[in-house]
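HOLO CASE FILE
Compound: manganese (II) ion
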Amino acid sequence: MNSLKKYEFWLIVGSQHLYGPETLAAVERDARTITAGLAGDPRIPCRLILKKTATTSQDILALFREANSSPACAGIITWMHTFSPSKMWIAGFAANRRPLLHLHTQFNRDIPWASIDMDFMNLNQSAHGDREHGFIQTRMKLARKVVVGHWQNPAVAAKIGAWMRAACAFADGAELPIVRFGDNMRDVAVTEGNKVSAQIQFGWSVSGYGLGELALAVRSAGAADLRGLLAEYRERYDIAPDLAADPSRFARVEEQARIELGMRAFLESKGAGAFTTTFEDLEGLTQLPGLASQRLMESGYGFGAEGDWKTAAMVRAMKVMGEGLTGGTAFMEDYTYNFEPGNELVMGAHMLEVCPSIARTRPRIEVHPLGIGSKADPARLVFETQTGPALLATMLDLGDRFRLLVNIVESVEPPAPTPKLPVAKVLWKPKPSLEDAARLWILAGGAHHTGFSTQVTQEMLEDYARMTGVECIVIGDGRDTRSLEAALERSMRF
Ligand code: MN
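Model generated. Tokens follow.
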């Protein structure tokens, strides 16, 4: 994946001509220092570009129009070094189509007690100018993130970085289509949704393709590509002994490699960023794509099983948000519970398709029967997963709106081995407790499919929800359990 480097962010510093050219020169000099400082911070994942100091309504409108027409510009940061009367900003904000972040900082960290005079006050008055700036954004009902603090404070860079990651996911989602191999698993409700609404809201372009087209791509896989891919499998993964010893069993792995080559070629031909499969439509394929889906996810594709395009899109968005951070992001499904008092756990897994980016152990290729789908025994990667702080996120279509639902969890070591379970799995402790988390999740209409991540943060998802204009419900530390429950119940009929 190399998504974050595709995008840049613009810093527009506001001022006005009232103070004279010396002050404007000082504003520009300080803005350059701040831009260089932030751009050099490892928490800032994308290019940050300082634009011309904004001093007139015409200039500001021109800057926002330029941003709208720049495919590389994924968001705009504004900061008022001095006072910058906000009627000047109305035309620009009215035209703006990019996510906004209002950086409320000032050049100096401390007040220079001994030397401070009225010239200093005129130059360094963001406490004053940024309030005027905030007023007009609120007056115009503009969603934006407000980040407060000195620009050299690492927490400030971290907040800007989280927002940039969310903005890249938003830009990426509008550029990369989502391919559905087949339709939805029949009769399942939560994986359905309004694809037109989703495209308007998130930019997701979701298109279905017949399995015949994919089967043709799989059959077209070249012998040299197949040999190369199998060599990569041997290098990166263990191969279960029964497969290594028996060429007729290893043929199942070769077939899955052909599926990977065919799917990858197909997705590349569509310029896609995510895809879905469904075990109810595998016409022309000999196996459910297990290992193939896992490998494609590992290289950055979003994935949703059973036709779940919303989760495929969210897994892709989360992979973009988390790019380069420690940990990984996977398609996930709440599967079964451990209701043992004092050690309540959720086991997450899927039939096959858990992304090895969350692996803690070297994955092993195994072949086992699959109870559903009526196809040959599929190859898959089996591994133990990373432990520590993690979260689950799902996007719901509630008919009149979308809802992003998040649960903060702790991924834990399995209390005992599971030698008979032939799939990758995760064990997690939901916050604030399994009982409260599952009750709130169910009341909120939360799906069984999610994106599971050990790299994406609550802040990134909240920023993403704000810039896409959807509500975000976070089930976390439990401080708001009662009010959250009451709010969810208020929208219900009895
Ligand atoms: Mn499923």
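CASE NOTES: Residues 177-493 form one domain. The first strand starts at residue 8 and ends at 14.
CLOSED: yes
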